[in-house]
Amino acid sequence: MHILARRARRGKAVRSTFQQVLGKPIDIVTNFPIDLANLERAALESALVERGHKRFHARQIFRWLYARGVTDIAAMTDLSRELRAALASEFTVATPEIVVHERSTDGTEKFLLRLADGLQLESVFIPDTPSMTFCVSTQVGCAMACAFCLTGKMGLVRNLTAGEIAGQVRVLAGALDMRHKKFNIVLMGMGEPLHNYDETMRALRILNDEHGFAMSPRRVTLSTVGLLPALEKMAHEPIMPNLAISLHAPTDELRGELVPLNKKYGVGEIIAACKRFPQTKRSRITFEYVLLAGVNDSPEDARKLARLLSGVKSKVNIIPLNAAPGIPFERPSDTAIDQFAQILAERGLIVSVRKSRGRDIRAACGQLIVEGPRRSPGQALAAVLHTETFKGKTRNVEA
Q: Is it true that 2-92 and 97-385 share their CATH fold?
């Protein structure tokens, strides 16, 4: 798939191919001038030196972009006027644009952002969790096609660049006046982070830079369905975020129906990889479990899950389904949710039940979806069903 970005006035567009972990590579057009927001500081230093500028200016530029939120090179006033003019001719700063900003009755805020090529994505601010949390996307759409997730019905449109991933943090921090306040980041928005491995890791390094947001990896959580080659590669990264595994079922048979990737990487393989994953003394792997009425919420499912996680330093985050038009499942009763959590707790597991946030603005887990120039079948289905009232079971709905 070729995503054509608008050509910059100066320089030619150069197409580069990002090889995906699964499926066919996606061609992405990169543009010159070079995007400052897409560079790690070391790469920016090299780019400056190659153009005859001093290396230390990279630190100044990082502080302007991230600590101060300034994207206009002309306004970076601790750089000389001559240098600013040179930089403006050689570089650009791409920043996602806020198209729609919605606020839920519970304080959750959802941002629809437009990228330089016109594609759109969603990011979410979740207050008082008890920390302040930014939920960030790593792809436009998602290829994982989990049965209970509306984002998966979009299909994968394209990967985000590191600058677009980190750019969401820049935009939210500025819009919410949180540039100098502590917040957490969860890579749980649109997309599978490990399906866009290189750009996701590069974004984390940009955010971690001491001259930018200086974001500690301990304040970042990456959620994955379990792309094993990428997961095992991440185990050796110098910047290691907290790990959350989207498990959702205790057996291969059931998980294969809910998470198609399970047919390639089974439950046993994922658990074995988690046992090998490096952890600090206080850290635990989070296993996310979306609870679906009559599907994976029985007492026997809970007992199987407890046996599966025996010996894994972990905690279980139960997520009662956030129902939405186009998702063919129902939310369990409060009694079923409590019973499931109680069974796990009685068997020594640390358990939390996630409170749904932003459901009235479709900002809750699994509800992020945007309309592109051409609707995917899943988008069309969701649009049609959005006006209908669901009664009874709807597991036979096809996308």
A: no
pLDDT surpasses 70 at 28: no
| pLDDT at res. 360 | 59
CATH topology of domain 97-385: TIM Barrel (3.20.20)
Fold of 2-92: DNA polymerase; domain 1 (1.10.150)
Catalytic residue among 142, 146, 274, 365: 365
Q: Tell the residue number behind the tokens 């996680």, with chain if given.
A: 309
The full set of domain ranges for the chain reads 2-92, 97-385
Catalytic residue among 45, 90, 109, 122: 122
Amino acid at 329: F
pLDDT in tens, 240-255: 999 999 999 999 999 9
pLDDT greater than 90 at residue 396: no
Q: What is the pTM of this model?
A: 0.83
Are the C-beta atoms of residues 277 and 231 closer than 8 Å to each other? yes
Binning pLDDT at 50, 70 and 90, where does residue 235 land? very high
Please report, in angstroms and rounded to a whole number, the separation of the first and last CA atoms in the chain.
Answer: 21
Tens of pLDDT along 287-326?
999 999 999 999 999 999 999 999 999 999 999 998 888 8
Residue 155, phi-psi category: left (phi > 0), alpha (psi -120 to 50), beta (remainder): left
Coil/strand/helix, residue 3: strand
**3-class secondary-structure state, position 288:** strand
- Where is average pLDDT lowest: 27-41, 57-71, 173-187, 310-324? 27-41
Q: Is the bond into 130 cis (omega within 30 degrees of 0)?
A: yes
| The length of the chain, given as a count of residues | 399
71-to-47, 75, 91, 122, 167 alpha-carbon distances in Å: 18, 8, 11, 21, 11
Strand pairing of 184-187 and 133-135?
A: parallel
Q: Is 122 a catalytic residue?
A: yes
Residue 365 falls in the annotated catalytic set: yes
Give CA 252 to chain center in angstroms. 25
305 SS3 class = helix
